[in-house]
């Protein structure tokens, strides 16, 4: 007797009772068995595992393709149909990087070259301004030294101030320091010299220059009378000239280049008396 006839029939998808009928029959019986694939439990589990792995691989591939598309969109990279896998995507991205590397460094170099040129121009300008400032400062310091030397040579009681004498002196004469630092006095661009062709000293020139301004004492020790334009209470031609220049718009400062030029011109024309 076959105890599990029903189980076999179920497993083989046979008509129920067909096995038992065949056993009980005295005649030959053919049992129709459907086309089946018979596997053991181990084989079935292996098959299921392989199918799950296959589905997982397909899912992961689809997800990777979506991820690559999104990333390519962020990079503004056209991957077409051939860039959906990592290898193709990597090659396309590499080409993009190399292409941009040819452009961006050139643009950067151009930008840096322009900036460097601007800096060089600015440096040259500042260097020139600094050089001019240094020269102006040197000239100013040199002129102060010359003025100081000339003021020391103004001696005695005069009808005008030492400062006015200095202004008049500089309007009439030029000054220059030689290589040894000695002060030379020039007239019409030529160094003033004595009969031995030795340059006159500032003291010698100033001594002669201030003679018209020496205050003459009256008998009894008083100052000169009103007949002396430089006497006490009198306004000299120089003082009037200084006042006239100060009243100009804008004012012409005493001792300035324009002041000295105007004074020299009037002295030469005889309209300004010392």
Walk me through the structure.
This protein has 274 residues and is mainly α. Among the domains are: 5-74; 155-269, no CATH class. It is 57% helix and 4% strand. The protein has a 3-stranded antiparallel β-sheet with strand order 1-2-3. β1 and β2 (183-187) form a beta hairpin. The longest helix is centred in the middle third of the chain and has 67 residues, at 86-152. It is rod-shaped, with a radius of gyration of 59 Å. It starts with a helix and ends in a 5-residue tail after the last helix.
Total of DSSP H or I helical runs spanning 4+ residues: 8
Termini, distance in Å? 164 Å
List low-confidence stretches. 224-235
Strand adjacency order, main sheet:
1-2-3
Tally of extended strands? 3
Largest sheet entry: 3 strands, antiparallel
Alpha-beta classification:
mainly alpha
Radius of gyration, rounded? 59 Å
Proportion of helical residues: 55-70%
- Fraction in beta strands: under 5%
> What is the element string, with H for helices and E for strands?
HHHHHEEEHHH
Looking at the structure, what is the overall shape?
Answer: rod-shaped
Q: Give the averaged pLDDT, no decimals.
A: 75
Task: Please specify the SSE layout and strand pairing.
Layout: H1 5-11, H2 18-24, H3 41-74, H4 86-152, H5 162-172, E1 174-177, E2 183-187, E3 190-191, H6 202-209, H7 237-246, H8 257-269
Antiparallel strand pairs: 1-2, 2-3
State the gist of this model.
With 274 residues, the chain is mainly alpha-helical.
């Amino acid at each position: 007797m076959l105890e599990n006839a029903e189980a076999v029939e179920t497993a083989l998808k046979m008509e129920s009772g067909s096995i038992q009928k065949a056993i009980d029959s005295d005649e030959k019986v053919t049992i129709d068995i459907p086309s089946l694939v018979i596997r053991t439990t181990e084989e079935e589990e292996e098959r299921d595992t392989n199918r799950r792995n296959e589905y997982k691989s397909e899912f992961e591939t689809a997800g990777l393709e979506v991820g690559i598309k999104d990333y390519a969109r962020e990079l503004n990279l056209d991957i077409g149909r051939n860039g959906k896998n990592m290898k193709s995507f990597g090659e396309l991205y590499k080409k993009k990087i190399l292409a941009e590397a040819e452009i961006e460094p050139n643009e950067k170099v151009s930008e840096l070259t322009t900036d460097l040129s601007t800096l060089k121009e600015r440096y040259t300008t500042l260097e020139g301004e600094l050089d001019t400032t240094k020269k102006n400062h040197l000239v100013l310091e040199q002129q102060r030294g010359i003025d100081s030397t000339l003021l020391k040579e103004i001696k005695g009681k005069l009808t005008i101030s030492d400062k006015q004498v200095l202004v008049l002196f500089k309007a009439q004469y030029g000054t220059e320091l030689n290589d040894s630092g000695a002060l030379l006095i020039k007239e019409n661009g030529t160094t003033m010299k004595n009969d031995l062709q030795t340059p006159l000293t500032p003291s010698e020139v100033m001594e002669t220059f201030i003679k018209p301004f020496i205050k003459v004492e009256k008998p009894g020790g008083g100052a000169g009378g009103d007949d002396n334009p430089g006497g006490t209470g009198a306004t000299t031609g120089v003082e009037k000239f200084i006042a006239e220049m100060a009243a100009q718009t804008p004012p012409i400062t005493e001792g300035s280049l324009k002041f000295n030029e105007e004074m020299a011109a009037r002295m030469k024309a005889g309209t300004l008396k010392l």
